[in-house]
User: Fold these one by one.
Assistant:
Number 1:
Amino acid sequence: MIDHLSVVVSDYAKSKAFYVQALAPLGHSRLIELPATHAAQGESAGFCHADGSDFWIRQGDAIKPPIHIAFRASSRAAVDAFYKAAIAAGGKDNGAPGLRPHYHPNYYGAFVLDPDGHNIEAVCHEAE
């Protein structure tokens, strides 16, 4: 439904390194970088998924209060891999991988805070 989403980050280099590592297990890869002269404000990096959805970060004054973004994962193993990669990239635990049956019986998610405190989630809705 959503084609792309853009989030302003306070430390572009730190956030870019975090998202490169954290989103890799979910099938995202850094697609393009735009220098400040080409972006509306500050450097930008776009991360693309094979389904065509894009997630962008841009240098500037980080969004406050922090927001919640959930990325769909193809499997529970991908959720687990996202969590490990995001923690290794400097993310802070905000909910280890596991079932969240209060959402629905197959809701399997993990939550990590990014460098600006945004709640980044990977979620799989499939039964395994």
Number 2:
Amino acid sequence: MSEFSYAPGLYLDIHPADDPSAPVVIYVHGGGWSHGDKGTDGPTRLVPLAAYGVTVVSVDYTLAPQAVYPQQVHELKGAVRWLRANGSSLGLNVDRLGIWGASAGAYLGSLVALSSGDSALEGTVGGNVDQSSAVQAVVHWFGQVDLAASAARTELEARLLPFHFEADFVGDDGSLDGLSLLSRASASAPPFLIAHGDRDRIVPMTESLALHYALTRAGARSRFELLGSAGHEDPEFNSPATLATTAAWLRAALD
């Protein structure tokens, strides 16, 4: 594993596959946009996936409330551009890149994928503005899809999962309006692999299903996998079967 700075104060880890021609996927960690870092899932998720033939680049982004939307998206797009500019010199196959996120990271990664060319979300973090921030495949694991809908909790749900996660993400002056991935689904979207547990009590599986249906109705490619008896961030997502399936899909999508 090697660490590099892709912008001032922002770092990424590269977990290489054995084959230097292996496809590359950028990993965006979860944690409600306010917790976690690029090393959180290294031993249990990222290193094992690299062993299945996909190089994993785990990226840090500034956490809320220190950063508010869209800074996190600007930073992740900066990481994509940095990889395109520097990957070849590091021996990485960066002609086609995937992005993979879990929970809050899945929302961010999917937003990166569905906003190519959106001037409001591109930003200039890290420079390399001559490089594209587009990605060619997306793995979305149990992530939020429509922040306004997910924030509309019952009183009991709000006690279990306070609204402050979304509030911190957009800031005191921000709005959740327009932060739905569904409105960005189009035929030009890259292919998606969406996975969710049927016992998720944090993000309902209906959110992932809604994204899957929105993509397919728009004419994009999407595959939906429902993991039986799995909850949010369930160990089943790190099982050899799930990681092998995910790696195989990424290798095919990024071929």
Number 3:
Amino acid sequence: MTAPTVVALCGSLRDDSTTRTALERALEAAAELGATTALLDLREYELPTFDPDREREDAGDAAQLAERLRRADAILLGSPMYHGSYASPLKTALDYCGFEEFEDTTVGLLAVAGGAFPVTTLEHLRSVCRSLNAWVIPHQAAIPNAHAAFEDGEFVDRSLEERVATLGRRAVQYATIEPDPASFESDQNVGAEGK
């Protein structure tokens, strides 16, 4: 078996993003198991607000981003918690994608919050992935109180760092898992067809 490709899509645009720092650690752990890895930083993509009447090829870098996701064996989605959900840059990126990018693909979830556990962010991302027929890794990483979780770009809490690293390792471990049958949610997701 060839080494799997694991990409991480960072939903934070902040320069000193703790979401990005955490995703980088997960990718390091995936690379340690032999995976080819890449961080897809949404600051580097021009993605206009999603308009279903606009072709993806006419929407800035949307087609390029979708192609990078399509080629991945596993995708890590990371987002800060905004208003109890995930960040709008990630929402826009996901709206430009569909079954071609996510169906039968292994997806890992990571969420970061300035306060309490970002549980709803993870739940919302899991619902989106289910509607795209992705296979979501049961292990997920939640980082509460992000301002205290890192110091000089490094994890302060080793057990939290290990949880994030485990997400990267699971992405490699399950990159080629045989997916479950389609979900009810995906059957209703007509908008994800023909992206």
